[in-house]
């Protein structure tokens, strides 16, 4: 038999068996959709496969992440662990650069012969009026600042470079602790009929304020 004739016969026989109308998925590739509540004979009627009442039988019950049915979750059973920054309050301190402080002194806004505390800095506008936890003295602008007189500054914190610059000029930087009430009493004494006593630093921060702790102890001994 001619090869071309055999090829034509094979193509005709294959095309007669497979047509576009015969194309379909394999059995089980597309499972039929569950039709709920269509009679008890279907197996999914009445309660639609959810059972009788209860939390899981209600609509909209998606469950929250970590919810364990009302019992104490595992997250609360286990203790907390890891790093805890006890000095996080330092990030709330108002920054004061040494070049700005020296500029205020040169302009005559701040009297350098007296103690420069946070109230003086606030009243003269050297720092903002919204002081949350205190003021930290920073050394920005030290290259353009040449302090030619001794200064006495009382702030909540100071960087090592800023402290060194003040001390090299013969001055002194006092690191003082003020809690929320003490800071408000110092900044706004007119709000109080009687100025409250300064609070001692917490034990975890005692290493940072040795001078203040010594002063508080001396005051307590004098009153006894």
TrEMBL record:
Residue ranges annotated for the Large ribosomal subunit protein uL15/eL18 domain, each copy included: 96-174
Gene Ontology BP term (one): translation
GO MF term (any one): structural constituent of ribosome
Gene Ontology annotations for the cellular component aspect, listed alphabetically: mitochondrial large ribosomal subunit
Biased composition (Gly residues): 38-48
Region (Disordered): 16-66
Family affiliation: Belongs to the universal ribosomal protein uL15 family.
Name the record gives this protein: Large ribosomal subunit protein uL15/eL18 domain-containing protein
Keywords assigned: Ribonucleoprotein, Ribosomal protein
UniProt source species: Guillardia theta (strain CCMP2712)
InterPro entries referenced in this protein's UniProt entry, alphabetically: Ribosomal_uL15, Ribosomal_uL15/eL18, Ribosomal_uL15/eL18_sf, Ribosomal_uL15_bac-type
């Amino acid at each position: 038999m001619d090869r071309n004739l055999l090829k034509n016969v094979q193509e005709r026989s294959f095309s007669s068996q497979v047509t576009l109308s015969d194309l379909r998925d394999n059995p089980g590739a597309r499972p039929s959709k569950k039709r709920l509540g269509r009679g008890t004979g279907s197996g999914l009627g009445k309660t639609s496969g959810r059972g009788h009442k209860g939390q899981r039988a209600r609509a909209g019950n998606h469950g929250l992440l970590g919810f364990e049915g009302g019992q104490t979750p595992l997250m609360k059973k286990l203790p907390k662990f890891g790093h805890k920054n006890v000095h996080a309050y330092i990030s709330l301190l108002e920054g004061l650069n040494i070049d700005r402080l020296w500029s205020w002194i040169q302009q005559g806004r701040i009297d350098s012969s007296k103690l420069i505390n946070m109230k003086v800095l606030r009243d003269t506008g050297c720092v903002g009026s919204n002081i949350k936890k205190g003021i930290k003295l920073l050394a920005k602008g030290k290259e353009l600042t040449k302090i030619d007189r001794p200064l006495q500054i009382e702030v909540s914190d100071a960087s090592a470079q800023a402290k060194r610059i003040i001390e090299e000029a013969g001055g002194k930087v006092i690191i003082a602790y003020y809690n929320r009430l003490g800071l408000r009493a110092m900044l706004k004494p007119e709000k109080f009929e009687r100025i409250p006593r300064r609070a001692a630093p917490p034990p975890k921060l005692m290493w940072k304020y040795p001078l203040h702790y010594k002063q508080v102890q001396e005051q307590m001994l004098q009153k006894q």
